[in-house]
């Protein structure tokens, strides 16, 4: 799936090339918790929600209203997924799977690693940045599922949960792609 999404892009967006390595390092940082992959998926979802909500807040100009609603739709959808993944991580693992300090540390690494700066982006860049964040999320989610399979810890319920999340984000990619591609 990772390759197909990147190859069919009609624009020059490059998915973070070291994302698998970054994701593996994040999994390792969770130490001995059960299902560290869920903890990392949770961090990626929280990052994605923050990106879309930030864009929702700062969008302006033409087409302000459409973009404002699009980013709201995206981040609100991610918030529901965050809760589902956190509850699954605690249910299969423990409350250590949602450690706030480690999540915050890893969020900062994602912010720095995915080109977020202290400069407020131009309105025309917002949809492209959200698009890139969605593509990176799908790559990370796919990598985490493969890791769960290798570890033998991918239950049917967990597979269904993550597959449903990936499906929604493929829909988000479609919406953002319509917004960022030249007419």
Written description of the protein model:
- The protein is mostly helical and 183 residues long.
- The chain has one domain: Ferritin.
- Helix content is 75%, strand content 0%.
- The longest helix has 29 residues, at 64-92.
- It starts with a helix and ends with a helix.
List keywords for this structure.
183 residues, Ferritin, mainly alpha, disordered N terminus
Topology record:
Blueprint: H1 2-7, H2 19-29, H3 36-58, H4 64-92, H5 100-113, H6 123-151, H7 156-180
Helix pairs in contact: 2-3, 2-6, 3-4, 3-5, 3-6, 4-7, 6-7
Describe this structure in a few short sentences:
75% of the residues lie in helices and 0% in strands. It has 183 residues and is an all-alpha fold.
Please count the helical segments: 7
Give the C-level CATH assignment. Mainly Alpha
Classify the helix fraction into a percent range: over 70%
Beta strand count: 0
Proportion of strand residues? under 5%
Provide the residue-averaged pLDDT.
90
Radius of gyration: 16 Å
- Helix-strand topology string: HHHHHHH
Largest sheet: none
- Briefly note the CATH topology name: Ferritin
- The shape is globular
C-alpha termini separation: 26 Å
In total, how many domains does the architecture comprise?
Answer: 1
Which regions contain 5 or more consecutive residues with pLDDT less than 50?
A: 1-12
| Assembly state | single chain
- CATH homologous superfamily descriptor: Ferritin, core subunit, four-helix bundle
Task: Give me the CATH architecture, please.
Answer: Up-down Bundle
Which class best fits the helix and strand makeup? mainly alpha
């Amino acid at each position: 799936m990772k390759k197909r999404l990147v190859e069919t892009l009609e624009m020059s967006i490059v998915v973070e090339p070291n994302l698998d390595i970054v994701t593996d390092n994040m999994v390792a940082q969770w130490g001995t918790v059960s299902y560290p992959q869920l903890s990392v998926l949770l961090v990626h979802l929280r990052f994605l929600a923050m990106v879309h909500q930030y864009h929702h807040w700062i969008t302006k100009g033409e087409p302000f209203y459409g973009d404002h609603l699009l980013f709201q739709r995206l981040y609100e959808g991610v918030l529901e997924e965050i809760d589902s993944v956190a509850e699954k991580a605690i249910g299969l693992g423990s409350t250590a799977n949602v450690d706030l300090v480690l999540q915050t540390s890893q969020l900062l690494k994602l912010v720095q690693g995915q080109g977020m700066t202290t400069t407020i982006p131009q309105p025309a860049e917002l949809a492209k940045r959200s698009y890139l964040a969605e593509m990176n999320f799908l790559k990370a989610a796919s990598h985490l599922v493969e890791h769960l399979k290798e570890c033998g810890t991918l239950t049917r319920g967990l597979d269904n949960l993550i597959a449903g999340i990936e499906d929604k984000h493929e829909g988000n990619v479609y919406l953002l792609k319509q917004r960022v591609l030249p007419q």
